[in-house]
Known about the structure:
By secondary structure, this protein is an alpha/beta fold. Helix content is 35%, strand content 19%.
Amino acid sequence: MKQLLILLTSALILLTSCVDTEERDDTPTGNFEALWEIIDQHYCFFEYKQHEYGLDWNEVYNKYKVRVNDKMSETQLFEVLCDMLAELRDGHVNLYTSYDLGRYWTWYEAYPKNFSDTLERRYLGTDYKINGGMRYRILDDNIGYLRYPSFQTSVSEGALDDAIYYMALCRGLIIDIRNNGGGDLTTAEKLAGRFIHEKTLVSYQQHKTGKGHNDFSSLEARYLEPSSNIRWHKPVCVLTNRSVFSAANDFAVIMHALPNVKLVGDRTGGGSGLPMSNSLPNGWSVRFSACPMYDCNKQHTEFGIDPDIPVALTDEATALGIDLIIEKARKVLAE
């Protein structure tokens, strides 16, 4: 048994070492080389982004290598490394230091918000229910409205039972996940399971198998089982905007695969790569997309998915206290 344990430990060490990057010096040049190599060997969307907008990671190296020298300051190096990572156009790519967070937020900052805190307060009112991460009430046309602003806040099975039971007599249900930047994927799956009535193919995923840009496993089907608790059987509208990202984007992908669900609003923000992290010689940490996920039709969702019914807010309607996306969902459910 002891010999077996030694063999398993040795195999694990060998397996781990095969994905390690070359050790670099803690210099600006060394940290630049380490970061470029980490992304080069482990990032998962090179081929897709080459096709979408011509990303060439070798050209990125040449472009930013000339901006690095060992006499530059720490803040200058941070700026160069962040600029290089921004070439990936990925909201799951971050560079962490003790004084700043390198990020790419153009995926939502360059687009209309299509959400208003003021309108949210108007539609929720003051007597709405609070349970876990959910806020919900019944609108005056007997449509249920459930707001879930972040999957970082979990929800219990009992809370979901209470919410569905409370809105059981409603004609339909609106789930508003606008501005939901993600969080715990299991929370998103737990909520989605309340709208699934048989084992359902909801997406596909792959895993990195080597250091090459195209070294991936075959597509693996991902199924979601229906909840064993109370489930919702009536029509549903899921409200989306560009700030729906990561686990929230995955929730939209799952719900989009269901027959009684319509997505209403704007295109989601994406973020379909499951992230992992690594460290640079100077102690900075980098997060990046490592495992690609696809929808049930094997299509990429890294740059988001389009709604079934596109709707945008207008300044005129907002000034009158009207959320056109909610109102469109109400109309769809009423019909």
